[in-house]
TrEMBL record:
Belongs to the SIMIBI class G3E GTPase family. ArgK/MeaB subfamily. The keyword Acetylation does not apply. Residues 1-17 have a biased composition (Basic and acidic residues). PANTHER family: METHYLMALONIC ACIDURIA TYPE A PROTEIN, MITOCHONDRIAL, METHYLMALONYL-COA MUTASE. This is Methylmalonyl Co-A mutase-associated GTPase MeaB. Pfam families: MeaB. Keywords: Hydrolase. It comes from the Bacteria. The lineage of its organism: Bacteria, Bacillati, Bacillota, Bacilli, Bacillales.
Length: 376
């Protein structure tokens, strides 16, 4: 347009006066601001991370490197799996001997308060403590919804402690399927006491028993735990039962509950050969009974190492880990098979309608799977 004082929507043949004028904009590829050679920040993808660099920093005690390693291990992305296995292969020989302690209990038993008080006690003794708090998963996002790191503020700030909340991912028993590999990473980072907290109580907690050395059940007074104890169940897996919140007016009742548990335990087979499971009282709020409990755990380890039970249990756990990984890999390969994906929806619909027996549908799926075996 020729006249810069006239808007372009006006009639050029008419004589009109305007109180404002305008200047046309400059044609440019940038926003008018002075350009700079400064590079833009881009977040580095986990797949591009240098495994050797992460491993070296992790072994040196860098908690950020440990967090990155666990994030890589927990990733479900296929391209991250090989990276994680490469990292674990490097870390496995560097893992320090540790005592792995599983902690479970009914909601409200004070697991987080207990772990924080117990963890701080051990940190002050000079131990390096890693807490793997397996939270329930959100059914919407799949993420952790309890936030143990925010509930253990004092322990999280301690230089000898590391807390890693992880979503359970709906895994039976509330144990994240990658927890075993996370244990290796923590041990390679120098943590010699591992506390693994699970989301609840039930027969499925046998999965926790299968990855720890010492299994602890936190119980309450007057919450129906005594009746649950009579049904055995979880008590058959525990190496110690801890009656928490034994403080204030609750001390007398806690001691009574402790005696009742010990009477029940007398008639049960011990969870660990050569070890008699017993009940104890403590107050995580006031820190009473925690040192005595740690002495019990140390005695358990010493006795187990002398008898060979400690090493035998570790070997059995490694064997179970091997078979569980085989089952997981086969299951993934089965459902990822193109043929299975193709016929599964129709077979599923037929089974629901009652047109095809379940066993016949399964046979058809496996026949399809075996005809064109995928690379596992």
């Amino acid at each position: 347009m020729g006249d810069q004082n006239r808007p372009e929507w006006t009639d050029p043949e008419k004589e009109e006066n305007f109180t404002t004028t305008y200047m046309p904009g400059l044609k440019s590829k940038h926003d008018g601001m002075e350009q700079t050679n400064r590079k833009r920040f881009q977040k580095k993808d986990n797949a591009e991370l240098d495994i050797q660099e992460i491993a070296a920093k992790l072994v040196g005690g860098n908690r950020i490197a440990l967090s990155k390693a666990i994030t890589l291990i927990e990733s479900n992305a296929k391209d991250h799996y090989q990276k994680a296995q490469e990292l674990l292969t490097y870390l496995l020989p560097l893992a320090v001997p540790s005592i792995r302690i599983g902690i479970t209990g009914v909601p409200g038993a004070g697991k987080s308060t207990f772990i924080e008080a117990f963890g701080i006690l051990l940190c002050e003794m000079g131990y390096k403590v890693a807490v793997l708090a397996v939270d329930p998963s959100s059914t919407v996002t799949g993420g952790s919804i309890l936030g143990d790191k925010t509930r253990m503020e004092n322990l999280a700030r301690h230089p000898n402690a590391f807390i890693r909340p992880s979503p359970s991912g709906g895994t039976l028993g509330g144990v994240h399927r990658k927890t075993r590999e996370t244990v290796i990473a923590c041990e390679a980072a120098g943590y010699d006491v591992l506390l693994i907290e699970t989301v609840g109580v039930g027969q499925s907690e046998v999965m926790v028993r299968g990855m720890v050395d010492f299994f602890m059940l936190l119980a309450l007074t007057g919450a129906g735990d005594e009746l649950q104890g009579m049904k055995k169940g979880i008590m058959e897996l525990a190496d110690a039962i801890v009656i928490n919140k034994a403080d204030g007016e609750n001390v007398t009742l806690a001691r009574k509950t402790c005696r009742e548990y010990n009477q029940i335990l007398h008639f049960l087979l011990p969870a660990t050969k050569g070890w008699q499971t017993r009940a104890f009282t403590c107050s995580a709020l006031h820190g009473t009974g925690l040192e005595a409990l740690w002495s019990v755990i140390q005695k358990f380890k010493e006795k187990g190492e002398e008898s060979g039970v400690f090493t035998e249990r570790r070997h059995l756990q490694e064997k179970e880990w091997l078979y569980s990984m085989i089952r997981e890999k086969l299951e993934n390969a089965f459902f990822d098979h193109p043929g299975v994906k193709r016929i599964l929806p129709s077979l599923q619909a037929s089974v629901i309608k009652g047109d095809v027996p379940v066993s016949k549908a399964v046979d058809s799926l496996f026949q399809e799977f075996q005809q064109n075996k995928p690379e596992v």
